[in-house]
Design brief:
Structural class of chain B: mainly alpha
CATH topology of the largest domain in chain B: MetI-like fold
Number of strands of chain B: 2
Radius of gyration of chain A: 23 Å
CATH architecture of the largest domain in chain B: Orthogonal Bundle
Oligomer: heterodimer
Strand content of chain B: under 5%
Order of helices and strands of chain B: HHEEHHHHHHHHHHHH
Distance between the termini of chain A: 33 Å
Number of helices of chain A: 13
Chain lengths: ~270, ~325
């Protein structure tokens, strides 16, 4: 196809304009956060005396160190647990084809559309009953349950795309079902598994409502939930609030920049196949 | 490995010839056992999903039939709470606001995405990786952070008014989230901002898969760029549009984070959404039953719309 220079120029101009609109809010909080605490910031303005003092202030007053640590603890449990459980279940549904598997799969698929709002009320009362609220475990277990539908769907699609002959060859070699999974299927699943890992990490990191409800103690909350609480107390100090926001964004942003290909392909493919 | 497996095959076939038909039940028993083992693999995921998603979901339906303050003993009230959801102006208002948000989250984002995909055409361009990374950025940062950022951008001294002043629109500058009429659209535009890039990248990758011959045929019929878009690109993107609709509509209906940090329902309950009221009624308002009924209604609405979108796009395929 021929491609005129002017249409190419228009295309880049439009995309650049959209990129600027997308980045503008991030630029505006970055500039605000570089102002000293208590500065009256107006709009997007280059700080005259850029300093990291607001970061320091946000870090100490809101104890973001603790909040980030709880976020990391929760994600560090949720990601491996849900990956292992989802992979095993997807193997049963996609490769072993258990009796009634398609009905079971439908029940899991239903979970793709259920909003957190539906489950959060009984989760709070039931988990409080067994003393799990205000502990990371409440959030970990609930997130694992919530991630099962996507994880199973994702790995099942992957296992079903693995050539049947590879699995049959292993079975003929007398490999048990677990050996087939571990020695034959998993070595071929690297990309699918790592994509699932980054998506689970992101969803766990960004979860808000669940944490807000299940962990009432502000000091034990995750970074985004802590930020939601922080905003109520420091709404007038824009630089400190902006710095706190950036502290919460930074870990997920760095992960994204390193694994951007996985994030984007995972979200696009996950969406299209779902 | 290859030699080994042929060996096994030979042994097997040897087996069959000796034992004849008696081998068949044995083999199928082995297969059946292997299939039953599958349930052991399902157990951990099934338990997590059952205990932390399905049971709570059903429990919410059960709670929605009671009047309960979360402390004392609940009282069975049947479907009264659902009538409350339909008739109480506060609750019905939240539903209406969620539907308004669909216009912004789904409608505008998809239109922006389609427009950009149309302008860009199907050429593969260099530098796309950079743009894709930028356009996906709103998808990966916590919505709470997005909400806080926009809350400040919308203030009197925020970036929105600064830009409006710069282009000579001083007269309309205001504290956007404080306005009874404009706060909800302002919140909705945050959704448009967050989701347009996703829609665009989705449509662009779909457009690049379209068969070139369709465009050649259209051009032979003398179609211009606009007609080409409506006759070829748009119908071919039906699948991607369905995906974008599903994602954005669910995001609008189940929105909580953004509203919670930007307006928390204010001013005067003009920006409440179902998620916000579920949280408020159940955990600070002592109306667990009504909150549950609202959560169930929201879920039914979401499932209904998702099914409807899939039906509509599948029928026309």
């Amino acid at each position: 196809m021929k491609q005129s220079r002017s249409s190419n120029f228009v295309a880049y101009a439009v995309m650049t304009a959209m990129a600027i609109i997308t980045l503008l809010p991030f630029i505006s909080i970055l500039l605000a956060a570089l102002q000293p605490p208590g500065t009256l910031v107006s709009g997007i303005s280059i700080p005259q005396h850029p300093s990291l003092e607001s970061f320091n202030e946000a870090w100490t007053t809101a104890s973001f160190g603790n909040l980030l640590w709880s976020s990391i603890k929760i994600a560090a449990a949720v990601v491996p647990i849900s990956m292992i459980c989802a992979t095993l279940a997807a193997y049963a549904l996609g490769t072993l084809k258990v009796p009634g598997g398609s009905a079971i799969f439908m029940v899991f698929l239903l979970g793709l559309t259920l909003p957190v709002e539906l489950i959060v009320i009984p989760l709070y009362f039931d988990l409080r009953g067994i003393g799990l609220t205000n502990t990371p475990w409440a959030v970990i277990l609930a997130e694992c349950g919530l991630f099962m539908p996507f994880g199973i769907f994702w790995m099942r699609t992957h296992f079903m795309s693995t050539p049947r002959e590879v699995i049959e060859a292993a079975e003929l070699d007398g490999a048990s079902s677990f050996t087939t999974l571990r020695r034959v299927l998993l070595p071929l699943s690297g990309p699918a598994l790592s994509t699932m890992a980054v998506l689970f990490f992101m969803w766990s990191w960004n979860q808000f409502l669940l944490v807000l409800v299940l962990i009432q103690d502000p000091n034990q909350r995750t970074a985004p939930a802590g930020l939601g609480f922080f905003v109520g107390q420091h709404s007038s100090d824009v630089p400190v609030l902006a710095a706190g926001t950036l502290i919460v964004i930074l870990p997920i942003l760095l992960t994204y920049l390193v694994f951007q290909r996985k994030f984007i392909s995972g979200m696009l493919e996950g969406a299209v196949k779902g | 490995m290859a030699a080994n497996s042929t060996n096994v095959v030979r042994e097997r076939s040897g087996d069959t010839s000796v034992r004849g038909s008696s081998d068949r039940p044995g083999a199928s028993r082995r297969v059946r056992r292997a299939r039953w083992i599958g349930y052991a693999y399902l157990a951990p995921a099934g338990t997590l999903y059952l205990l932390f998603v399905l049971v709570p979901g059903i429990h919410t339906v059960w709670l929605s039939l009671f009047r309960w303050d979360g402390v004392t003993v609940g009282k069975w009230v049947g479907l009264t709470n659902y009538r409350e959801v339909a008739e109480n102006p506060l609750l019905r208002g939240a539903m209406v606001h969620a539907l308004v948000l669909i216009t912004f989250f789904a409608g505008f984002s998809i239109i922006v995405g389609l427009l950009m995909a149309a302008i860009l055409g199907r050429h593969r361009r260099s530098g796309m990786t950079f743009y894709r990374v930028v356009f996906f950025l709103p998808q990966i940062v916590p919505m709470v952070a997005v909400g806080i950022t926009w809350r400040w951008m919308y203030t009197e001294n925020g970036a929105v008014n600064q830009i409006l002043r710069a282009i000579g629109l001083d007269s309309i500058t205001q504290a956007w989230l404080g306005s009874f009429t404009l706060a909800l659209p302002a919140v909705g535009l945050i959704g448009t901002w967050a989701l347009s890039g996703l829609c665009f990248v989705l449509f662009l990758s779909g457009a690049q898969k379209i068969d070139n011959s369709l465009y050649e045929a259209a051009r032979m019929d003398g179609a211009g760029a606009v007609r080409e878009f409506f006759a070829v690109t748009l119908p071919a993107l039906r699948g991607e549009i369905a995906v974008a609709l599903t994602i954005t509509v669910v995001a609008a209906l189940a929105s909580f984070d953004i509203v919670y940090v930007t307006t928390n329902g204010s001013p005067g309950n003009t920006t409440t959404v179902p998620g916000l009221l579920v949280y408020r009624l159940a955990f600070t308002g002592g109306q667990v039953g009504v909150a549950s009924a609202l959560a169930v209604t929201l879920t039914v609405l979401i499932i209904g719309i998702v099914v409807l979108i899939q039906r509509l796009t599948r029928e026309t395929t």
